[in-house]
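lol ok so funny story. i was supposed to be doing the assay writeup but got distracted and ended up predicting the structure for this chain instead. priorities right. anyway since i did it might as well share w the group, maybe its usefull for someone
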Amino acid sequence: QVQLVESGGGLVQAGGSLRLSCAASGRPFSNYVMGWFRQAPGKEREFVANIWWSGGTESYAESVEGRFTISRDNAKNTVYLQMNSLKPEDTAVYYCAARTKWVNEYSYWGQGTQVTVSS
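and the output, tada:
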């Protein structure tokens, strides 16, 4: 069973930085794509970034391009989301997710971690 556990959320002032971590366990992830999503109050969940575990190809939402960086540590089975130049509109619950590279739908989700950016 795949388990994803996020950590690293918190309260930060606008312009600050946070790094989220997602510890993955349960199976080898070489054929997986790992994603970060977020959901703000009253809004739908939206894609933030993803990375192919094998090869490291990255993709970003336009709203975070140039400010956020996704990465993975193969030895630790952990995916990171480095968030810089944070804005109040980045406030949301951030979720880690995983899917195999052959499908588009994410099958596994973490419990989420709250990120709050104050102005």
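The longest strand covers residues 92-100. The chain has a mean pLDDT of 96.
back to the writeup now i swear
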